[in-house]
Amino acid sequence: MPQPELLETFPNPYAGRDYEIQMTCPEFTSLCPLGGIESDAGELALLKGGAPDFGTVIITYVPDRLCLELKSLKLYLWSFRNDGIFYERAVNRILDDLVAAASPRWMEVTGDFNVRGGIKSVIRARAGTPPGTHPTSPP
Questions:
Q1: Cα 2 to the chain's mean position, in Å?
Q2: For 55-111, what is each residue's pLDDT tens digit?
């Protein structure tokens, strides 16, 4: 079960400047919520989810007042290991939890998952206003 309470932050030392932080977790693991092939059903039931899913999670953000602390982020991402969760839900859950913890100006979470069943999935979710873009005023 994901544990957002593990997330910690620290004050942004350059809160008056827009700058981008990118963190990559190449060993993200969760469980497929639907199980696997029928012959594995007994073993997969022991996992309380399906076969393991592997991927890389890339977090890119422009901090506001707070930055994410790396060790706590690692522990938070590890908390998905035994969770049966769809890729789309995992990526959006990570985004929601990180935004709630750090309130960035902008954030993007990308889940680049390993091939499963011959299909490669890359999921991206964003929050906030992308760096370098501002809503235009009417003329």
A1: 11
A2: 999 999 999 999 999 999 999 999 999 888 999 999 999 999 999 999 999 999 999
For the chain, first and last CA: distance in Å? Answer: 50
**Phi, psi (rounded to 5 degrees) for 101:** -75, -40
CA distance 62 to 12: 10
Cβ-count burial 23-36 (b if 16+ within 10 Å, e if not): eebeebebbbeebb
Domain ranges, ordered by start, for the chain: 4-128
The whole-angstrom separation of Cα 71 and Cα 114 is: 24
Q: Please count the CA atoms within 13 angstroms of the CA of 22 that sit on its side-chain side.
A: 5
Q: Is 97 a catalytic residue?
A: no
Query: pTM of the predicted model, to two decimals?
Result: 0.85
Of the residues 32, 67, 97, 112, only one is catalytic, namely: 32
HSE-up of 1 (CA within 13 Å, CB side)?
2
Point out the catalytic residue in the list 18, 25, 53, 64.
53
Instruction: Say which CATH topology domain 4-128 has.
Output: GTP Cyclohydrolase I, domain 2 (3.30.1130)
